[in-house]
């Protein structure tokens, strides 16, 4: 018989697992890993609302994507275009970024799988006599290691030609040059920290769903058990 067990700690772990997976996925897909040096506005760059010159803009560069301003044939119009600069894996600007993409992708796939499974932990608490929370926590720890490797290797690619074109000639491995780190990098870093927090907190979720109070509720014949 399936017992639906919902506790404060297990629900919090489930929500955190989902948030972490989405945060890492969004960061990976974003082009805002590096914020390039400011590009000065030309005399043709006119703000349609004020009639004055637009402020300098900052192009951004991601692992496989970028955002830059493009001009139209119409009168003095400028739009920001975002999209992948690499049409396939081999066109990613640096071998280090290719390794980063692999490690992050593996970590994110594990996190997404755990996030999917975590939704069903309300009904299924064990698999082959193994606590599903402990198994998921172990997988989250492994995913965190992949994410760390990816984030460590990423700055080593700052010396590639693509990064230099955005960050200036002073850019090199682990040196940003004229660039700054964008929100995507910090999101990936924060998500990695939360991944390990989730891995540790999974043990608390397991304790909460197997407590004596839960067992008493099961023995009373209840199928829906909600505990704080």
Automatic annotation (TrEMBL):
Subcellular location, principal: membrane
Membrane topology: Multi-pass membrane protein
GO CC term, one of those recorded: membrane
GO biological process: single fertilization
Residue intervals passing through the bilayer: 12-35, 96-120, 132-154, 183-203
Localization of this protein: Membrane
Keyword field contains ATP-binding: no
InterPro entries: LHFPL
Keywords: Fertilization, Membrane, Transmembrane, Transmembrane helix
PANTHER family for the chain: LHFPL TETRASPAN SUBFAMILY MEMBER 2 PROTEIN, LIPOMA HMGIC FUSION PARTNER-LIKE PROTEIN
Family: Belongs to the LHFP family.
Protein name, as recorded: LHPL2 protein
Protein source organism: Chordeiles acutipennis
Gene from which the chain derives: Lhfpl2
